[in-house]
Amino acid sequence: MAVTLNLRQAIVQKVTNKPDADIIEMIEGSIDYDERALPGLGVLFEMIWKESDNTMRQQLVDTLQHKLHEGQGPQ
């Protein structure tokens, strides 16, 4: 478990105090590229999920369901 926490901490440190443009660039640079970036995106998603109310969570799930039904999951 300690490895997971250290990974989370490293990812949070990487984005802490970064301007919005840098965070957007990091996210967009991780999508559809190297799978090693997926844990980082997962940590960011976890942070968003924890701070979201039920309405936002449902919107996220609806978006995922829509993409899955379109067959637009990861290639």
Q: How would you describe this structure to a colleague?
A:
Helices cover about 75% and strands about 0% of the residues. The chain has helices at about 1-15, 20-30, 40-50, 55-70. The N and C termini lie far apart (about 30 Å).
Strands, helices and their partners?
Elements: H1 2-15, H2 20-30, H3 38-51, H4 54-69
Helix pairs in contact: 1-3
Keywords: Sporulation
Family: Belongs to the SspI family.
Pfam families: SSPI
Rg calculated over all Cα atoms:
14 Å
Shape: globular
Alpha-carbon distance between the termini?
30 Å
Number of beta strands: 0
Number of H/I helices: 4
Poorly predicted sequence stretches spanning 5 or more consecutive residues: none
SSE order, one letter for each helix or strand: HHHH
Helix content: over 70%
In percent terms, what proportion of residues is strand? under 5%
Give me the secondary-structure category. mainly alpha
Round the mean pLDDT to the nearest integer and report it.
Answer: 87
Please outline the major beta sheet: none
Brief synopsis:
With 75 residues, the protein is mostly helical. It is built from four helices and no strands. Helix 1 (2-15) packs across helix 3.
Descriptive tags:
single chain; 75 residues
